[in-house]
Design brief:
The protein has about 100 residues and is mainly α. It contains 4 helices and 3 strands.
């Protein structure tokens, strides 16, 4: 999913400043607080930011995100490992065929 320019702006602000109040984001982007909250809500649904009860928003960097990243990496590597195992089995079969030809 591609982020809107405003969502990208919010992420840039959060990267630069860390934890920021919704009101300050709205002021910096020259939009209403309601509009800012809508963008932030969308970013929260995407799992990119989190908000507290006081209205402060920050990038989401919790263990759950890291777990998801690791899980994706493991899945990619498992797929590669399975592919390599299949290739090894094919090579073993080819070696057996070649050995049989050599004995005949």
């Amino acid at each position: 999913m591609e982020l809107t320019p405003r969502q990208q702006d919010i992420l840039r602000i959060l990267k630069a400043k860390g934890q920021v109040n919704v009101k300050d984001i709205a002021i910096e982007l020259k939009i209403s607080q309601k509009t800012a909250k809508g963008y932030i809500r969308d970013l929260m649904r995407l799992g990119m930011v989190e908000s507290d009860d006081a209205g402060y928003v920050k990038l989401k960097t919790d263990a759950q995100n890291k777990e998801e990243e690791i899980y994706k990496i493991v899945q990619i590597h498992e797929s590669e490992i399975n592919s390599l195992k299949k290739e090894i089995e094919e090579l073993k079969e080819e070696i057996i065929r070649l050995k049989k030809r050599g004995k005949a």
